[in-house]
Specification:
272 residues; mainly alpha; Rhomboid-like fold; 4-stranded antiparallel beta sheet; 9 helices; 6% strand; globular
Length: 272
Amino acid sequence: MSASPDIPNKFARWRDVRSFRRALLASVIFTAGLWWIKILEDVMGRPLNSLGVLPGQWTGLIGVVTAPLIHGSYSHLLANSPPLLILGTLSLYTYPKASRWAIPMIWILSGLGTWLIGRHSSHIGVSGLTHGLMFFVLVLGILRWEPRSIATALVAFLLYGGMVTTIFPREEGVSFEYHLAGAVAGVLAAILWRRRDPLPARKKYSWELEEELPSGPHSSSARNSSRRVRKRCRCCGNGNLAMTGANATRRSCRFAPRLLITMRIPAPRPPP
């Protein structure tokens, strides 16, 4: 059964869209939760600033967990919402496995760092996490150095590269300590989990395949034999259905075992 060779690409694009929707949904739900907490705080009429990080106080360690959930005003929360949505979506979509470890790590280390170096005040807000995510995505783009990671890092830096300056003291009432601790945690998370997500397969072009074929008296026969076909799964693109002549080994596919297409592949080198 033959079909258009771009069908596996369509299913790959569909999986990418599904992954992006999941990452966006997770970021939207978390951001909506922060707004719900702020509205509930106003309805109750009880400020929750005491749940922030209080440096040097043992009771202030509870803020390591709760501080990112608390905001001083609606303008404070409004300023943090767009970077949380965008950077959260970028990290979860591009690095789904690494982000599962990096986000809790940034959350905890940014709070602990603020507790150690912060001024004697209540440090609240999710900006420590957003700074950590920006540096996490940026450093991963440098360490992995492949097109998708570089593109993600460029988008994050073009939108929120100003976070590089907000890790230093600039204005009164802004916790640069939280920003700095989050940035350091993001860099550490990128270094630790840079191999958590596999690198995408590098595409080989036709001239590279030609170079891999042997030269000499057997070169023409090798090029002709390179037109043998391999069966691929039509929906997931798995190339595990090798075909030799009229016989093919059928293996199961978790989506649709019988949807197959044929694809030209280079043949193995002939013996000397």
